Amino acid sequence: MKRLLEILLVSTRLGFTSFGGPIAHLGYFHDEYVRRRKWMDEKSYADLVALCQFLPGPASSQVGIGIGVMRAGVLGGVVSFIGFTLPSVLALIIFALVLHSFGITDAGWIHGLKIVAVVVVAHAILGMAKNLTPDVKRKTIALFAVVVTLLWQTAFTQVGVIIVAGLVGFLIYKHHTLDDHSDKSHFPISHRFAVICLTLFFGLLIALPLLREATNLNWIAMFDSFYRAGSLVFGGGHVVLPLLEREFVPTGWLSEEAFLAGYGAAQAVPGPLFTFAAYIGTVINGWQGGLLATIAIFLPAFLLILGTLPFWNTLRKNPKIKGALMGVNAAVVGILISALYHPIWTSSILSAVDFAFAAVLFSMLVFWKLPPWVIVVTGALGGFFLSFI
């Protein structure tokens, strides 16, 4: 119980302060869970990130669930998810009920939070690169990942890069031995439970559209749309937004203006962008619709991560797979560098003043060792005042 409470407190704090999208969230997680609390080592964290890059759905939320599972079982995963997700769900439900017509997308404090995201991701990349790309071969794999993911910016490019990096790593490092004394990974999930989760995932994916056609009930139709979005989207929250727009705007569930207002609200709150579903659900059917939409869009992520973790743990301890994972981990560093440039850097550092402010925030985080929440507050206040310059 003590461990569950600890997970809830830490994940809730992250839920209130993790601005900047999925890649930034991975930076916050790395700083909190790997650097500060040492709940897992660099290699285990990179392996978990690599797995979640393979799976459809919200990668950062799946990483958070996985960390909770490793710490305290399935309940730990649930608690970690609730803590990280609830703040933005509540904020977006309130936006939908009261403030969704306010124009806030160009507010200065939001731009300040984007600069914070640059700093957090850069800090995470430095730490991961030092540990995961220590030799020239892995630096070359990371460079390959940077170049390819920058030139071909699609969700499937990331998956392809990880597959190629895994094959290259297998060929180069198949006889390499690793010292696993620092490996703290533990997935307290049985293979039987994992198979049940995977079966339920595919079963719902098939059954919900059939139920939708057979019943014509609005709540089943809504659940089906959100579940399908959470099941079939690779690449994180920004990729799911156009899919949700096609599901709900042309069909008349909500207007284009309401959708865009919610998009602005989603950019303004911390936590996973998939919680945009809470806004849409609330517009359609009140706060009950918001909760239903949240459950529907995140349920696939839960089923997939719980269904794959036990098998992933077995594979990554196989000597023949370790070389492949070394290549994959190097590619993850490259993918993060690519994401740091686009969309994080390109949408945040727009002037010399922005760069100077980012340098100050980076120094506060890296050299002065100030807590992340101080960086977030300073970034928001600084962005607000810079908007008057």
UniProtKB/TrEMBL annotation:
Keywords: Cell membrane, Membrane, Transmembrane, Transmembrane helix
Subcellular location per the Swiss-Prot or TrEMBL entry: Cell membrane
Membrane topology of this protein: Multi-pass membrane protein
Coiled coil, from the record: none
Predominant subcellular localization, coarse grouping: membrane
Entry's Gene Ontology molecular function annotations: chromate transmembrane transporter activity
Classification via NCBIfam families: 2A51
Protein name: ChrA protein
Protein's organism: Halalkalibacter okhensis
